[in-house]
Amino acid sequence: MKSQIVLNRYDGGTPPAFSGYWQDIPLNVTLDLSAVLKLAGHVQIDERHELLAAKRDTVIAALSRLAEMGQIETRSGRAETMLSALDLD
């Protein structure tokens, strides 16, 4: 079964962080500098504070791969992970 991952909102900050859900568990995703550079050097967001569709699909695909490998940490009912450029390949 594929992991269902939804990114809802850009939370800002440095490094950039996003919130969403993974299998109905609240998810926080942080992009390290290499990931930001891989996504064209900056994180583009739309007026709803979401990643633009193409970039969101890239990030969700990377998160899905990490989830399938068991690489997303869950603590106290929350999931957290950091993505690097290597994760986005």
UniProtKB/TrEMBL annotation:
Superkingdom to which the source organism belongs: Bacteria
Record protein name field: Uncharacterized protein
